[in-house]
């Protein structure tokens, strides 16, 4: 199973990172890797969603441990943190991460990932224009759902 290989690779990287940091290697921290890397590659999750998912699976873990572990995963390059508008931070796995941009629906909150070579052309042109070696970028498009009978809108629970 590809996920198993990916999870083990992520755990090795994290173990090395924690050793270099002089940080503790707790089972709870490694369980966060398990759950984050079991998600589909294009799924984004917040701390509360991860906490509930882990609790439902029988883990005894605190929200604080999840927050702290996700921060360490971002620092180690194993997770990417996104802040879309005024929403809570969302995380996605980064080990197989290929740069992409996002479209976020204002109504149903569905996040879609996309890549377009024209964006890289613009990035290169701006780099030349600004005499800068652009190393990264972030593009998020926000729109209003026009999908008739949108499944995500039906499933949306009010805050």
UniProtKB/TrEMBL annotation:
Q: Kindly list the places in or outside the cell where this protein is found, as annotated in its UniProt entry.
A: Cytoplasm
Concerning CDD domains, the annotation shows:
Fur_like
Superkingdom of this protein's organism: Bacteria
* Cofactors demanded by this protein: Zn(2+); Mn(2+); Fe(2+)
The entry's Zn(2+)-binding residues are 105, 108, 145, 150
Record flagged with keyword Ligase: no
UniProt xrefs under Pfam families: FUR
Task: Tell me a GO cellular component.
Answer: cytosol
| Molecular function per GO | DNA-binding transcription factor activity; transcription cis-regulatory region binding; zinc ion binding
Q: Which UniProt keywords apply?
A: Cytoplasm, DNA-binding, Iron, Metal-binding, Repressor, Transcription, Transcription regulation, Zinc
Q: How is the cofactor bound?
A: Binds 1 zinc ion per subunit.
- Amino acids binding Fe cation: 99, 101, 137
Which GO annotations describe the biological process of this protein? Answer: negative regulation of DNA-templated transcription; regulation of secondary metabolite biosynthetic process
Subunit structure comment from the entry: Homodimer.
Instruction: Please state which protein family the record places this protein in.
Output: Belongs to the Fur family.
**PANTHER family from the UniProt entry:** FERRIC UPTAKE REGULATION PROTEIN, ZINC UPTAKE REGULATION PROTEIN
What is the name attached to this protein's record? Answer: Ferric uptake regulation protein
Q: Give the organism the record lists.
A: Algoriphagus boseongensis
């Amino acid at each position: 199973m590809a996920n198993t290989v990916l999870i083990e690779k992520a755990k090795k990287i994290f173990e090395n990172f924690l050793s270099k940091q002089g940080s503790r290697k707790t089972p709870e921290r490694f369980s966060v890797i398990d759950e984050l890397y079991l998600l589909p590659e294009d799924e984004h999750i917040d701390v509360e969603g991860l906490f509930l998912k882990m609790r439902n699976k029988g883990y005894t873990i605190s929200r604080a441990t999840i927050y702290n572990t996700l921060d360490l995963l971002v620092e180690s390059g194993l997770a990417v943190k996104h802040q879309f508008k005024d929403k809570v931070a969302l995380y996605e796995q980064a080990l197989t991460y290929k740069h992409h941009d996002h479209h976020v629906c204002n109504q149903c909150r569905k996040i879609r990932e996309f890549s377009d070579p024209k964006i890289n052309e613009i990035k290169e042109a701006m780099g030349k224009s600004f005499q800068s070696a652009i190393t990264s970028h972030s593009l998020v498009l926000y729109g209003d759902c026009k999908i008739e009978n949108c499944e995500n809108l039906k499933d949306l629970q009010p805050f």
